[in-house]
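User: My collaborator sent over this chain with a note saying "see what the structure looks like." That's all I know about it. Can you take a look?
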Amino acid sequence: MMSQSLKHLASRSCSALALAMLALLCACGGGSPGISPYQVAVDAANATAAQARALGVNTPCASNAQCGVLVLLPTSTSCLCPSYQAYSLTAPTAANANSTAAEQNVLALQARALLPGPIPAIACLCIRPPVAACTANTCALAP
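Assistant: Without extra context I'll predict from the sequence alone. Here is the result:
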């Protein structure tokens, strides 16, 4: 069985490889004809967001202190309102979930920087960042 530190190292190594590939594709004008550097960046950010959501599991909790909130940024809108997911800080994958969400935030901002054309100015209303609470032995978002 793989130790937690080896799992974290493997996850970080894969993430570093993905970032290097993204940088290479962007520098070379993309990998396939018709796929823009922006789309490659969006795909990388979305894949990392899915990985963070999968790692952010909800194991049983006994107190609010055992719960956390993952923050994931959008890639393709002019509004930077994040999405949130409650997760258990006591889960074996909690540290990886948190670092993967932070990585997703960087990738999402990089994708937005590559957004083709001008970004339309629209007003958006983001919700106040929620807090995580232990409700019925499950971490959940509380307003």
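A starting point for your reply to your collaborator: Residues 5-10, 16-30 have pLDDT under 50 and may be disordered.
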